[in-house]
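In the design runs reported in the main text, the only information available to the sequence generator was the tokenized backbone. The following block is the verbatim input for one such run; it is reproduced so that readers can re-run the procedure and compare outputs position by position.
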């Protein structure tokens, strides 16, 4: 019969052993288990062999820090990166079909959060990650931190108009030129070119339609 080595009071990595934990009846693994206190304040029950062999050195916080040396785990910037990678690579993500499911990829460099942070900087308050070309990949050239209003205007189903080499949605052109959206839409339906629909002043509408 194996002799029990009392680990009470001993420290393994960040864990300090508080007391032995009684094994549950019917539990297949008969190895001794110990209630441990982690330096972060969390308690965890760990097997003797895991402690003595070095397999377990914390409640899990150490592994998390190793994976996120940047110290930004849980921040808005990190959550945006995590969501981006999930919706492009994890088929179990609810909106995967809109991203990875239709071929939207994350560039190789951005598989690392540190590279993503280097390229994008921290996420400004009131913004979220947006692709400039909504059919393009997640890359530094195609991404920005955008407000909800900017993202709404950048949806795939928006009607985009190109005028003098510049492409914007109807809402943006209306705001810039001081023309109602319904007016621009009506002009397009009537067969006007994008340039005419956007650049023709409202007070010239009648003369334009009668010519």
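Verbatim output:
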């Amino acid at each position: 019969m194996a002799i029990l080595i009392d680990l009470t009071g001993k420290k393994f990595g960040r864990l300090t052993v508080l007391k032995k934990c009684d094994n549950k009846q019917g539990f297949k693994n008969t190895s001794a288990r110990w209630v441990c206190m982690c330096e972060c304040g969390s308690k965890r029950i760990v097997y003797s062999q895991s402690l003595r062999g070095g397999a377990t050195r914390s409640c899990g916080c150490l592994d998390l820090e190793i994976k996120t040396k940047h110290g930004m785990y849980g921040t808005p910037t990190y959550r945006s990166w995590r969501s981006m990678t999930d919706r492009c690579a994890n088929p179990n993500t609810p909106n995967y079909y809109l991203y990875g499911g239709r071929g939207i990829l994350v560039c190789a460099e951005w598989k690392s959060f540190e590279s993503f942070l280097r390229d994008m900087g921290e996420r400004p308050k009131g913004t979220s990650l947006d692709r400039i070309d909504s059919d393009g990949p997640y890359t530094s050239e195609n991404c920005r931190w955008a407000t909800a209003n900017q993202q709404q205007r950048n949806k795939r189903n928006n009607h985009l108009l190109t005028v003098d080499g510049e492409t914007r949605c109807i809402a943006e052109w209306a705001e810039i030129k001081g023309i109602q959206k319904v007016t621009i839409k009506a002009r397009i339906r009537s067969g006007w070119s994008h340039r005419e629909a956007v650049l023709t002043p409202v007070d010239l509408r009648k003369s334009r339609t009668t010519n």
